[in-house]
Amino acid sequence: MIHHSQPTLIFQIMNNPDITTRGKYQNSIGTLPDLESYDFENIFKVCFDPDRQAYFYNIIKTVNIPNNINQDLYDIEIVPPSTSMTALSHKVYGTIKLWWLICTVNNISNPVKFLPSGTPIKVVRPQHVHTIVNLIKQNLVD
Q: What number of CA atoms fall less than 13 Å from residue 137's CA on the CB side?
């Protein structure tokens, strides 16, 4: 089980000059369960706190997708009333695990806040998701 770090620990990590190289990806740590391909956590490295004997995610990373992405890569979806990002992900992709991609493409910073009903948003076409997710992973700074 991965334990979330305390605020003081996050502050210490943020001041660490080698933050982008600290940790390993979860699927490369044999004692932790493997993540599925589209899990958001794949973007972040996992660090180990020897004092607490606990793992935590190094969340000091941002994924940005340009606003002017090729229109052939996405469709416009109209948000139904009272629809969460996970529900929208399930509707479009058949999995709740791509909520983060919808948020990233639309610059949504709060994934738990419902968007107003009728809001048009971009969704990466299902046939392009694998390629887009792999490009994101390849372009992350290690």
A: 15
